[in-house]
Amino acid sequence: MKFSIAIMLLLLIFSCSQKDQNSTSKKDSTIVAIDSVAVNIDSSKIENLKQEEIEYEGPKDGFYSKDYLEKHFKAKVYYQRKNREVSYYKIAIFKNKKQIQTFKIAPEAPFYNEDYINLTFEDANFDGKIDFLITKFVGMNFDEKYLYLYNDGIFIKKKNFDKIINPTVDAKNKQIVSEYHVGPTEYHREIYKWKKGKLIQIYSQVEGEDY
After folding, report:
1. Which of 31, 75, 111, 118 sits most deeply, having the most CB atoms within 10 A of its CB?
2. What CA–CA distance (Å, rounded) separates 148 from 157?
């Protein structure tokens, strides 16, 4: 009888020990699983940060060009990207796929993307010939303006055109219109006409200057 009781006690102790081992094993498995999830989350965050950094970097440093097209003409603008800044340095003009002229762009404060410069081919002096207009956008206005009139197969820079602020070509009325703001409330509108090869101001209006 005593022997049977002893056997039962041994079986009970062994059973409890086995349960403790199983419980410890389950806890260890749970800890390993939690650690694995944490590692996966950290890895995912790192990959997302790397991807965001790559997307933020944008185009790589180097030398690039961008084309502006007209029916018979093309302007190819050359610029350099360095440290997330854009610096223009040359413009080549082509007519019917043949290069006819090159302009060097003077050193300037760098921009932060290539869309700050705009080039258009249009008849700016209304003589029936396509001219070439370069504008560089700074703030709310076109800060630098260069007009090249087409004459005898080449484009010739028109002096004093860069003094006109934010110019646009009004082909319908054959005039150059300047519209811009000074501060938040003061609005300026000026109109220029071509007379004997020169741009003459014929109209000026200012609104809001008393505020």
Report:
1. 75
2. 4
pLDDT for 5 equals 56
- The residue behind tokens 């990207």 is 81
Give per-residue pLDDT as tens, 65-115: 989 999 899 999 898 888 878 888 889 999 998 999 998 876 555 555 656
Contact (CB, 8 A) for 190 and 141: no
pLDDT tens for each residue of 161-189:
888 888 899 999 999 999 988 878 889 99
Beta bridge partners of 144: 136
Write the DSSP string, the chain: -HHHHHHHHHHHHHHHHHHHHHHHHHHHHHHHHHHHHHHHHHHHHHHHHHHHHHHHH-SPSEEEEEEEE-SSEEEEEEEEEETTEEEEEEEEEEETTEEEEEEEPPP---BSSGGGEEEEEE-SSSSSS-EEEEEEEETTEEEEEEEEEEETTEEEEPTTGGGSSSEEEETTTTEEEEEEEETTTEEEEEEEEEETTEEEEEEEEEESTT-
How far apart, in Å, are the Cα atoms of 56 and each of 50, 67, 103, 109?
A: 10, 25, 33, 22
80, 89 Cβ separation under 8 angstroms = yes
Question: At which residue do the structure tokens 């110019």 appear?
Answer: 167
